[in-house]
Specification:
Helices cover 31% and strands 22% of the residues. It is built from four helices and nine strands. The protein has a five-stranded mixed β-sheet with strand order 2-1-5-9-8, with helices on both faces. A four-stranded mixed β-sheet has the order 3-4-6-7. β8 and β9 form a beta hairpin. α1 crosses α3. The longest helix has 19 residues. The protein is globular. The mean pLDDT is 95.
């Protein structure tokens, strides 16, 4: 069986971002990449007090909707994500598992009150997708700032990551 990554939009996602991820993930990983029909945003995952979606709840929804024959599943959403111990996360993944999720919210310049930059958003989305998928392959956070796998606590950490570094 050919290894395959399934992209699973969670809520509405722009086709342009999904097209870039499909094409670039296939180029970099040399795996088949397939786009799935969107999954509705899981209402139970919304944390009203924080105004964010709880990453673990979103991961559960993606796990339940994941095609059984997919090698990896990457859930992608526009909404901001958090976990109890951090104010936000760009994404989350099962270490050595097959499920990963990522948020586009903080990858967009608009989140920071800046003009939209489609190209920068697409570059950041690719880095974040590879980072989260890296965890599913067993990669842990790296102390090298330019690596694709450091713990990103700010958008600057995503920006300085180099797709070809370390991994």
């Amino acid at each position: 069986m050919t290894p395959r990554i399934d992209l699973l939009p969670v809520g509405a996602i722009e086709d342009e971002v999904l097209n870039v991820l499909e094409r670039r993930l296939h180029q970099v990983l040399e795996w088949e990449v397939r786009r799935n029909a969107p999954l509705p945003l899981p209402a139970a995952a919304f944390n009203e007090a924080r105004g964010q979606y709880e990453a673990l709840q979103v991961m559960r929804a993606v796990t339940e909707a994941a095609p059984e024959n997919a090698s990896r599943v990457l859930g992608i959403l526009e909404k901001d994500l958090s976990i109890p111990m951090l104010t936000f996360v760009f994404g989350q993944a099962q270490l050595r598992g097959r499920i990963a999720i990522m948020s586009l919210a903080r990858l967009r310049q608009e989140f920071y009150g800046l003009p939209a930059n489609k190209t920068l958003t697409e570059i950041r989305a690719m880095k974040e997708a590879l980072h989260e998928l890296g965890h599913t392959f067993g990669l842990v956070h790296c102390p090298v700032p330019s690596c694709l796998m450091p713990l990103a606590k700010a958008i600057q950490h995503v920006d300085r990551a180099d797709i070809g570094s370390c991994v």
